[in-house]
Description:
Blueprint: E1 4-8, H1 20-31, E2 37-47, E3 51-53, E4 59-60, H2 82-91, E5 98-100, E6 105-106, H3 108-117, E7 125-131, H4 136-146, E8 153-159, H5 177-191, H6 196-199, H7 206-209, H8 218-225, E9 232-234, E10 238-239, E11 243-244, E12 247-250
Parallel strand pairs: 1-8, 2-7, 2-8, 3-5, 4-6
Antiparallel strand pairs: 1-12, 9-12, 10-11
Amino acid sequence: MHPSLFISHGSPNTILYSFKTNANLRNLAKTLKKPKYIVMVSAHWCTNGLKVINPSAKKLMYDFYGFEKELYEVKYEISSDESYTNNVLKALEKFDAKIEYSQNSFDHGIWTVLHMMYKELEVPVIQISLPMNFSNEKLYEIGVALQSLRNEAMIIGSGSLTHNFGTMVRNSNQKDKNVLEFENLISDLLKEGFHKEIINYELKNFRLMHPTDEHFKPIFVVMGSSINGVAQGFNDEIQHQSLSMKSFIFRN
């Protein structure tokens, strides 16, 4: 069985610099068995209803503004796959998942994470959307449905454990005490497999951490895909004072 991961992807230009996150994700990937394919959900493809990327997708989406010129010149080989897309559609049949043929490129929540994990990506990526009209419980059920694929696929949710631009201080080395407390809270819950409090947002300072919740929601899919619900936290880096890069691996 392949693991399920929740990855805090941070700013897209993280891939250009020598942050701890880059090394930590690359080192983690080296320890993981290669799956046949990867199923990913990103905070940057929000939809009404559940969609699946065009099986012919192989482009990068530079869906960000005001960053370094080098970031828009990054090339990375990535593609979807028709056969594995059908596997995902079958697993998600009860959610009426449909292929979105106009979605033929991968957003930065997908490719920057994989770029940090793998110098060269050797397997297809099947991206599913983040249906914002689904309840947190229903997003969790998407993950439960994906459990059947974990003998052949790795599940990755790309988002952010915290995401409040209003509390960020660019290039600060300080660590917001509220962010540290939130990291510890989520870590303590997940290492015991306690999901209810997370799904229900019964979390101190949640709205301070997430004025909008699209960057947190991918974690529900990942939690649901776990068999025993227990996760180990890794990558204890905070960027820009309040942007947590804390990520989690569900091995079972």
